[in-house]
Amino acid sequence: MSQKPTLSKMIGGGQTTSLIAVMNRLWPYIRPLIWIVALGLIAMGFVAASEAGIPMLLKPLLDHGVGAKGSANAKWIVPAAVVGLAVVRGGAQYASGYLLAYVTNKILLELRLKMFDRMIHTSAGFFQRETASTIINAIVFEVNQILNVLQSVVVTLVRDSLTVVFLLGYLFILNWRLTLVIAVILPAIGWLVSKINRRLRRLNRESQLLTNELSYIVEETVGGYKVVKVYNGQRYENDRFTSMSNRLRGYQMRMTVSSGLAQPLTQFLASIALAIVITIAVVQSANDQTTVGGFVAFVTSMLLVISPLKHLIDVNQPLQRGMTAAELIFGLIDEPAEPEGGGRPLEHARGEVEFREVSFTYGAGQPTLDAISFKVAPGEMVALAGASGSGKTTLINLLPRFFDPAGGAVLVDGVPLLEYSLHDLRGQMAMVSQDVVLFNDTIAANVAYGQTPDRERVMAALAAANLADVVAAMPDGVDTRVGGNGMRFSGGQRQRLAIARAIYKDAPILILDEATSELDSESERHVQEALETLMKGRTTLVIAHRLSTIERADRILVMDAGKIAEQGSHAELLRLNGLYANLHRIQYQQQAAA
């Protein structure tokens, strides 16, 4: 079952997102570029005014420049004016397009950078709550919808609105009685558009949620392709994808029906107005109340009004799509950043760690950690053991402040973590988890991640992690790219590369979460030797299901249901014949059976 994305929020906490709300949010990005925007709008004004220039030139030409008695000046001046008008219109159109494209692309860049920056500075809870596909859609794809709103929609709204205003103004000057007929039709068109607007807004929002769910299905299938193939899950995944695609298609067709009705209904209303205008104009002409040139100029202007009106109505669907995208984009930008802490500097920790009456709960369920208290001396190796779900990983996640405890406090060197600068605090820690993450960069960049690579230190770290020979055999050595999440390495090699990263950082506090889980016995022996050298003089917290890897720990804490059930050395816990001894016997029997 796909997870329902929750990132899409309403701006300001309301139920809908209006164009005014979006423009208010965009104003800080627009303000530094306001003069470029103003020049673009002025250029669009010239484009709009040029539309009214065509019928204005037709009237004198028909009244004074056609026929044997036509004015010689009108015969030559009007055609020259038409050419000049086209040149002005073309230049203004190019200038407005370029200036506004510059502004929108600049704003697009700022929004994308802001979203990515907020994403990497948000809390760990955000990444547990949101799917990767939803975040990717927001940063990579949905922000382009805002670009469409800025460049296409806003340009159309401004240019075509001005065109309608100029043409209606000229129509009023030509014949105010006929213009009143059009003025009666326009409110009816506006009412129709507003009704369609509301429906499209709702359909767009629901369609966006379905699109995110469809993306998540693809993400799950790609990430779990081995499970899909081994368990013959192709039909199941096809059914999931087909069902969601059909639902999305249904919404798209409903949107097409709603937006498609706007244009023919508008044209129908406009044709009624045109028929009434022609009838009245014929009566006026019979009574010598208008000239041929005036009549042609009026009808031409009226026909020219229909085109920008159609554009203004057609802009409705992308406008609503942009409003929906805005909810997602500003929802991410408004996501709270991680609390920075008290700002107390920490250049080099001694490595003393203390958990003092620490409690933690996910949501409203049972406590994951219940009043945990223990202290780790500088340079001491403390291992956490226990069944899955006993709270070991949650406890470790509190140390680098991925989460903050619900009760109690975690201290480093006698100072609560909340008082330290978050950047300085994490600078004192290196972490290797069972879920190895490698970046599609060189081996050197992965080992020295977050720092400038020093080739000698990189090679030393690789040697300590028993990877030097593997890297030396590669065509580009430490400059070899590892591929997407280290696809060029085996599981054990990826684990050792992550260990090399921790060795390179040389932090006073070391966190190992199943750090040797993917290693074969021979590799584990070499890495264990390297880790023992690394752990000398450093505080080390180790989680391991394989108890043989923590037998040398100074102290082992055995957790059960969020509490410390037992603690002591390996030998002491075996003599105690409790939980740890039972786990040890089970693993020993499994290894003997294997």
Task: Give a concise summary.
The chain is an alpha/beta fold and 594 residues long. The protein is built from 19 helices and ten strands.
Characterise the protein shown here.
The protein starts with 18 loop residues before the first helix and ends with a helix. With 594 residues, the chain is α/β, with parallel strands linked by helices. The chain has helices spanning 19-30, 34-64, 72-121, 124-129, 132-174, 176-223, 225-230, 234-286, 292-314, 316-333, 392-398, 422-426, 443-447, 455-464, 468-472, 491-505, 521-535, 570-576, 579-593, and strands at 353-360, 369-376, 381-385, 407-412, 415-416, 429-432, 509-513, 539-543, 555-560, 563-568. Mean pLDDT is 78; it is low at 1-5, 8-16 and 66-70. Helices cover 63% and strands 9% of the residues. It has two domains: 11-333, ABC transporter type 1, transmembrane domain (ABC transporter transmembrane region fold), CATH 1.20.1560; 340-428 and 554-594, Rossmann fold, CATH 3.40.50. The longest helix has 53 residues, at 234-286. The strands form two sheets. The protein has a six-stranded mixed β-sheet, with helices on both faces. A four-stranded antiparallel β-sheet has the order 2-1-4-5, with helices on one face. It contains 19 helices and ten strands.
